[in-house]
Amino acid sequence: MTVVNVAINGFGTIGKRVAEAVTRQPDMRLIGVSKTRPDYSAVVATRILGYNLYVPADKIEEFEKAGIKVAGTIEEMIEKADVIVDATPGGKGAEYKKLYVEKGKPAIFQGGEKADVADISFSTLCNYEEALGKRYIRVVSCNTTGLLRALCTLRKAFGLKWVRATIVRRAADPKEVKRGPVNAIVPDPAKLPSHHGVDVKTVVPDLDIMTAAVVVPTTLMHVHVVYAKLARSATREEVIRVFEEAPRIILVDASLGLKSTADLVELARDLGRRRYDIPELVIWRESITVNGDEIVWIQAVHQESIVVPENIDAIRAIFKLAKKAEDTIRVTDETLGLKKFL
Ligand SMILES: NC(=O)C1=CN([C@@H]2O[C@H](COP(=O)(O)OP(=O)(O)OC[C@H]3O[C@@H](n4cnc5c(N)ncnc54)[C@H](O)[C@@H]3O)[C@@H](O)[C@H]2O)C=CC1
Ligand SMILES: O=C(OP(=O)(O)O)[C@H](O)COP(=O)(O)O
To answer: Which residues bind D-glyceraldehyde 3-phosphate per the record (predicted)?
Structure first.
């Protein structure tokens, strides 16, 4: 079996999760992660997780003084890798792309980068086959990934005429202390549309979609209220069956006490999910309302983990390790324990 050597550049919220997911794949090897500061997560990466740590050339001494073992420079990490997953803050990936190109390495970028950083914007359930053999792939943002999981599932089953959605965005990730709001709801942006619908169209260009977003003072998850017109009439039972049978989507029942994002996170904790991650798109079953060809539902997106499976699939797409979406989904979802939930 081909084993691909993967490097993670940017070991933050997304990078640490993708790194761990890579270590669980039979066809991938994690060769190292990068850090720019010798903080607690550098200690965890090296001493607890046993990862090789690569740092900027002018910071080696600083890390070593802090007692953190360094395997080499970020440039050396890139040279050793077959592919780089770039999970640096939005905009930095485009700067790093020059280095990846110079070293002749393919790379995966995240949703904080502009679409033109890559050859293709990507979401497994929508366009895995189109991404096969591409050198630069952008995994779209968490909200866009959440929207696309549901929309491509419905499109395949019924066809879609149009979509309108309101995105209620969490203000910051739990670890972030310098961001707000703490007591306000902020249109994001005030001038519509929000970037999410525009971003969906980077993956599904012919879809008529418009989104608006507001930021609210919470860190747990995002919530979307989605309205769509199907290409044909359907029954509520049909729609529920399609969502239930789709990979990476789970339906939950408010009647069971799962009434809010707080309840979902508590359930993930009770189930012993690592970091209380919920990489599945969560749809509230009771919210699914079907009236002929019109449908409405409410869904929740765990921003810190939803894009992790798609990053793993994007690696497989670059090296054609799986020819079909269903083949990569089978391995990724089994190794990451998706849908073993309720
Ligand atoms: N946090 C989230 O909810 C989601 C984030 N994304 C996207 O993923 C990307 C990364 O976001 P996060 O993981 O949240 O950011 P983060 O801030 O948690 O992590 C970024 C990491 O990159 C490191 N870094 C900064 N400059 C660097 C450099 N020059 N070289 C190497 N490493 C450097 C930082 O120290 C940090 O550890 C962004 O494009 C973001 O838009 C996508 C989906 C969800
Ligand atoms: O990709 C995300 O959101 P998005 O889908 O609204 O762009 C992540 O939640 C990161 O959002 P942030 O830019 O508020 O850190």
So the answer is: 141-143, 196-197
- Yes or no: say if 280 and 248 are a contact pair by the CB < 8 Å rule: yes
Question: Is the pTM here over 0.80, yes or no?
Answer: yes
- What domain range is 100 assigned to? 4-140+307-336
Confidence of residue 24 (pLDDT cuts 50, 70, 90): very high
- What type of residue is 39? D
- Mean pLDDT, residues 75-89: 98
Rounded distance, CA 199 to CA 79, Å? 32
Binding residues: 13-14, 112, 141-143, 170, 196-197, 303
Calculate how far, in angstroms, residue 14's C-alpha sits from the geometric centre of ligand 1. 6
Distance 71 CA to ligand 2 centre (A): 31
Query: Which pLDDT value is given to residue 340?
Result: 76
Q: What is the band of 191 on the pLDDT scale with cuts at 50, 70, 90?
A: very high
Q: Which ligand is nearest to the CA of 109?
A: 1
Q: Is the CB of 141 under 6 A from ligand 1?
A: yes
User: Within this chain, do residues 105 and 119 fall inside the same structural domain, yes or no?
Assistant: yes
- The total number of structural domains in the chain stands at 2
User: What ligand has the least distance to the C-alpha of 35?
Assistant: 1
**Does 342 reside within a domain?**
no
Establish whether this prediction's ipTM goes over 0.90.
Answer: yes
d(CA 285, CA 297): 8
Same domain, 156 and 284: yes
pLDDT at 1 over 90: no
- 126 flagged as catalytic: no
Give a yes or no: residue 158 inside a domain: yes
291 C-alpha to ligand 1 centroid (Å): 41
β-pairing, 222-230 vs 289-291, is unpaired
Residue type for position 96: Y
Catalytic choice (28, 126, 139, 142): 142
Q: Could you tell me the pLDDT band of residue 178, with boundaries at 50, 70 and 90? A: confident
